[in-house]
Input
Amino acid sequence: MDEPTLPVLGLLADVILPDEERTVDPRSLDASTVDALRAAVPERLLALPVDSPVQLPSYVTARWGTECEVAGMSPEGIRLRGLRRVRVRQVYGTQPPFHAAVEAGDEESAVEVLEGAHALMAALEVAVRERADAVAKPFGGLLPLLRRMARVLLDDGRLRAQLGAPLGETLRAAGQALVSGVKVEDARCRLAAVMEKLRDAPDVPPAVQRELVGTVVEIQKKLGIYEPLSDAETTGDLASLQRRLERAGLPAAARRVAKRSLRLLRDMPTNHHDYSSHVNHLELLAELPWHSEPLGEVDMARTRERLNAHHFGLHKPKERILEYLAVRALGGKARGVVLCLAGPPGVGKTSLARRIAEGLDRKFVRISLGGAHDECEIRGHRQSFLAAAPGRIIRGIAQVRSRAPVMLLDEIDKIGKDKWRSPAAALLEVLDPEQNREFEDNYLAVPYDLSEVFFICTANDIEEVMPTLRDRLEVVDLEGYTVAEKIEIAQRHLLAELAEEHGFAAPLAPTPDVLPLAIEGYTREAGVRELGRLLAGVYRVRAVERLSGRTADGPVEWAEFERIHGPRRHHRQVAAATLPVGVATGLSIGAAGGAVLFVEAVRMSGTGQLRLTGRLGEVMREAAQAALVRLRADAASLGLQDRVFRRSDFHVHVPEGATPKDGPSAGTALYLALLSAACGAPVRADRAFSGEITLRGAVLPVGGVRAKVLAAERAGVRLVILPADNRADVPPDLQVEVQYVERVEELPGLAFERPPGPAPRGVPVVPAAGAAG
Output
């Protein structure tokens, strides 16, 4: 019996199921259709999935849609409630809204639906039984099967396409796709496992090797990817190479290249100048892993244990790494972000990357990018070039023979910056998840999928990385260790590792004063690399003494350490020293970590000009100008006459003039150096300053606070003055005191023994002795 006609609402990007209520966005619909429906105000309508509005009313064959009740209409959309699935007999009309003649579908009977559901469950049961051997723990193999079923139903608009058929038929089709997909996945996993055996055990007996090769060919035939590389008989070394290529499971594009090269080699004399290049190219094709590997789940407990066992301190970086891995394990969007460990040398960036690989149970490969100046270092050279070779990325994958290693791109900030052939542009394709699925190495000459590689980058100075490349990196800062952390690292790790390296059965035991004095007197580093070299020198001397028959197992005392390494190179005497007039101590940060920066200012007769030297950047020059303007604005409160500025020139210089310097964080040090030169009073030498100032007198927060404070600690500074908003960035367990300021008016009281101020009423203001003007 024919059902009444219903107005048709064509859905371009959505579907509505029975017992489902949804608001349809009017912007995704034809405006004339929406206006017509609002004018007619129907109680019910037909929600019909279509690919294009022009298809209406051209439907004359059976289609399936959902009869819906109109729950309401508003400017936000049309509220629909799904009632039942109906078969569309015909759609007709000349203008919206079109109408459709529909009828109830016999296929929607309970028997059909139950049969389809039974077929789906049977397929799921078969898939679980087939993979029972691969289940490592209860229900361990069920979750990926359910995910596969969800992909079958939802990916690529399949759900929307399947709703064009009865539900029972849809369920049966989903079951067939599930079984087929599981069989293909199992075959690929078995293929990867057998190929791993062939690669890792080249010396297996010939009978076993023939059996494994036969298994590979059989699995490739099931997957439909087997294709003999040559119909002609091949002998000698080429036959062995051909067999390796056939069991490598090359994709179609690689098989075509391999077949062409084999044909050329059969007709080419072995002494031909291109013969070795073709053989080397085919050797690379045979060595590369071409199929996905079954990866284990991220073991957060093991990763945390490895990080804590090999790295003391670095609490924030370690927690950030664990958060990053947890998001990746859940399949979050962070899988498209590349981790970048940024910090000075010797803080443990490379060893952190190794611990991540151990936690993920993946192979580790390190690619050094320092000094790479050409994109061919990344993409490789074409085979037509003399001595052509693949790029470093493909070479690294071939080296570990894994398609999903942890790949460390070391020193990404030291690659060449030539605008024509910069490696940074090629790295964009390597690290971009939207492009690296089909990365093309010039030497390989076929697309290679890098999407399963876990990339980690390291950099000393993240600001040196090209901005477009830096945008793809998730930066984790490793700014260095405090003195207390260095002592712990030496006691827990360095002494034991050096003992093993130098042939000692047990590590040496320094007296309690040796490590602190060695760190303060011989090192000025953020990491512990130089400290390790100093301790290694002690082990070498003890080794000589042991072979000479002298006792070499007692504790290491400071006198012995000083005798081995000579007088102390650094002294914590900054606090006791006196700075000249016009000098203030600032703090900076660079590729080697934090450092103390002295700002010098001199006042001389002139016309109020400001000169700047020391290879200062544009931002630092503007900070000096702002500091002088603010100082002139504060002249009255500081007891300075205006003629001091009108009749004087100021020259600001920052030593180490060959080193470029830039940034606004020297604002407070510039202000105090200019104030010291203007009033003739020296700034206290045991104080260091960092902060940006504004013309209004506010002190703004700065970056790299941890590295700067650690540099002040190493230099023997007793008090560090920072912006109040940087309070949360200061690490605990410091041997320096930190005070915070919000306004420049607070600086003179902290910087001078006797803060400058206005003279008593009736007493003339006289420039200080030695000041010009």
Notes: The radius of gyration is 37 Å. Residues 48 and 65 are 5 Å apart (CA to CA).
